[in-house]
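Quick start: what a row looks like.
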Amino acid sequence: MSKIKIATFLFFLFSVLDVAGIIFNNQTLIHFSKPFILLSLIVMYVLKVDKKYKLYILALLLCFLGDVFLMYKGEMYFIVGLVSFLLAHFLFIKIVLNRIQNSTLLKVIISTIPFLLFLLTLILTLKNSLGDMLLPVIVYGLTISIFGMVSLLDYLNTTSAKSLFMFLGALVFIISDATLAINKFYHSTHLFEVLVMVTYILAQYLIFRSMILESKSLKHII
């Protein structure tokens, strides 16, 4: 078995184990498996491409740190985890902006409206429950909305496979983050916890596929 197949197997194995840990409320299983999801994805990317995109690797490392901090309870861990993912999203936005060459005002407006409506709806839903976290959540919500907007803009400009994977990854990432916010600040259910992780893993894999297509060495994508 090749190294890339082993890394891919481990990525899906740790993903399944982590989701199972959430479903059965097994903290030991979660703490064992969750950190290795992003680490195995980094290994998959490094083995898959000849020319590495350092910004993407750094973004994955920041997401890894976010995963680790969010495993623990407490507002401080949540804030540090939030900052880690915020920085990762800045890098994702930079990666997409580097792809965008030219566009039209109409495409910018079309790309902006749905994510602006999402952000306003989310903040209006959560504002009475956020307290001191109102400003951090607004900043984070604005950032992920920009990620979605630029990803959609890139897709409207190119309609390429790599832009489609990135847009879908951004969209699913936003769904994951929004569900996490709703679960933490508005209405907590066990189903939301499972949904957060499933959508997060899917988002990371979709972005990974986009970044594989970004590279010049286009090998077979699993």
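That is the whole record. Residues 83 and 90 are 11 Å apart (CA to CA). Residues 3-214 form one domain.
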